[in-house]
Amino acid sequence: MDTSPYEALAEAAADGVEFDGLVATREGGQLLVETPEETLTAPVETPRSALAEVGEYVENWFFWHQVAPQAESRWAFLRWLERAGGHAVPERYDALEDGLSRSWGQLRVTATLDDDQRRYDLRHEADADRAAADLQRSDDPRDARDITKLDADGEYRPLKTAPTLRSGWVFPDLDATDLVAAVDFFYPATIENWHREREGDLDISHWHETMARQTGIYGVVETWDRQEGHDHVEWVAEACCDDSQCLKRREWDYDAETPLETDGGSGVFPCREPCSIVVSAARQWTKQEGKQALTYEFELTPTEKEQLEAVVDAVAEGRIDDIRPADVRNEANQLRIRFLRAKLFDDDGNLGGVQTSDE
């Protein structure tokens, strides 16, 4: 790689250069350069000093063509980070001096300039205002694989895009190549799918066709689609694809002609097909929903009914751990639940003493 932006530009100008407001051509032994602010000429062999006034344009061209990863998706992601499409080069360079930040899931990426070189700070968005010295430093993007394994409570994270990424770490000084590698370790394939969506080329595999591909122990899921309607898929999407469970934005529906009414979420990057977690859960629900509904009779006060409903809601929304032990006004308070169990459940755990039928 040519290490001199000016000499590299002089060489490339033989074929003509037009990028981000910079136009460069060659005529005889002269390099002709135009920007929105300046029109300059420089000797092809020694262009640096004559082009000093447009140095930001030259450095900018050099970065995007000879430093940044050239894979289209990664290149577009880096441009998106610094809002390259909406700001002229001098304006953008001024902003980069202070740092330009974007959120990507639970990641916070800040692009800056250090001696005219782009550097990237990557951390959890919850640590946006913390000093890097107060966080655990990493310089190898492969360290991201270890960070993603466990949540803050030490529990395994089976879904990389679950909103449970632990905080307290920082990659403070990555170059462009290592930044996109680290992001890909945190959220695999999200950059690629985000780019495909922007290009109108996201290949979506909807629920019906995804389930039709299942084999082995997961093949049972296909039987769920033999009933009329697709309410069951709405329930799956509501359970699994909410922002509280996954940071992707669901783009798949029941099939190409049958959109789901359940909101797909607000994530930056799209979800192109039901993931392995959805398939695994659907297998369990397929077996569960295959049983006939029966009628059970229980006696509950209105308050007890509302309390059971509140408990289900609190568990579904992950609020149980936030309920203080002394907050007995909360219907999902542990003491109130224990009282309900003592009153309504027999020694075998049957609600109202009514046994569950095997039929």
TrEMBL record:
Superkingdom of origin organism: Archaea
One of the Pfam families matching this protein, by short name: DUF7348
Location of the DUF7348 domain: 3-69
Gene3D superfamilies per UniProt: 3.30.1360.190, 3.30.70.2320
DR2241 stabilising domain boundaries: 89-198
Domain DR2241 4Fe-4S iron-sulfur cluster binding: 199-284
Name the record gives this protein: Uncharacterized protein
Taxonomic source organism: Halapricum salinum
